[in-house]
Amino acid sequence: MYPKAPSSESVAGKGAREIDDVMVQDPYCEAYFPKRRAVHLNFEGQDLQFCSTRCKDEFLAAQLEKKDQ
Ligand SMILES: [Zn+2]
Q1: 33 in Cβ contact with 63 (< 8 Å)
Q2: CA of 27 to the centre of ligand 1 (A)
Q3: Domain spans in the chain, listed from the N-terminal domain onward
Q4: How close is the Cα of 61 to the center of ligand 1, in Å?
Q5: How far is 33 from 44, CA to CA, in rounded Å?
Q6: Residue 52 phi/psi, 5° resolution?
Q7: Would the pLDDT of 39 be above 60?
């Protein structure tokens, strides 16, 4: 026999699984994407998350240009 589970608990469990796939924003292209797919960069003590290695590279290039001016 299966143990009787309250229906409210199964709803809460489903919600927790959805929260696990949290969305983050790319600081370069400003797109939102799932955090588990993020490309991480530690930049001046900040942990930044990009949607792709290309955005990470272009963000870094933009920061270097800013420093030149
Ligand atoms: Zn991006």
Answers
A1: no
A2: 7
A3: 23-68
A4: 14
A5: 23
A6: -155, 160
A7: yes
How far is Cα 60 from Cα 38, in angstroms, rounded to an integer?
A: 16
For residue 51, how far is its CA from the centre of ligand 1 (angstroms)?
4
List C-alpha distances in Å: 8 to 3, 4, 5, 54: 15, 12, 9, 44
Rg (CA), the chain: 19
> Is the pLDDT confidence value at 9 over 60?
no
Which tens digits make up the pLDDT trace of 41-67? 999 999 999 999 999 999 999 998 988
Q: How far apart are the CA of 42 and the centre of ligand 1, in A?
A: 16
- Identity of residue 62: A
